Amino acid sequence: MFRRLGPEKDTLGDISRVEGLVRDRFGVPGSEIILVSQDPGLRPGFPPHETNVIFWKNQRRYRLKVFAPVAKVADGDLPVRWLLPSLEDNGDIDCC
Fold first, then answer.
1. Is pLDDT of 73 > 90?
2. Nearest CA to 55 among 45, 65, 43?
3. Is 59 exposed, middle or buried (0-12, 13-18, 19+ CB in 10 A)?
4. Contact call for residues 8 and 28 (beta carbons, < 8 A)
5. Residue 17 class from Cβ within 10 Å (0-12 exposed, 13-18 middle, 19+ buried)?
């Protein structure tokens, strides 16, 4: 009758790890916010889980999506540092 609406397992440790990867890769200071979430993949043919990251740096908002569950996101899954300008969130909801 009742079921959990969140992820099947505790992902807090993985979320913190991915936050650290994003901070290191893009030089996001500790005073800036990074939001990491694992969401269901809703598009046919895509993986069942995706990791979404929204972060701020120098009063600009950025976002990226990794087509893997948060537990499997590794340093090599993040874009290289010089691609940061392409991650700027311009409000287009269908960016990725």
1. yes
2. 65
3. exposed
4. no
5. middle
Structural tokens at position 49? 């889980």
First and final C-alpha spacing in the chain: 35
Q: What six digits make up the tokens of 91?
A: 């409000």
Q: Which tens digit of pLDDT belongs to each residue from 42-63?
A: 888 889 999 999 999 999 999 9
Q: Is 53 exposed, middle or buried (0-12, 13-18, 19+ CB in 10 A)?
A: buried
- Read off the tokens for 78: 């993040």
Q: Compute the distance between CA of residue 12 and CA of residue 36 in angstroms, rounded to an integer.
A: 10
Domain segments of the chain as ranges: 12-87
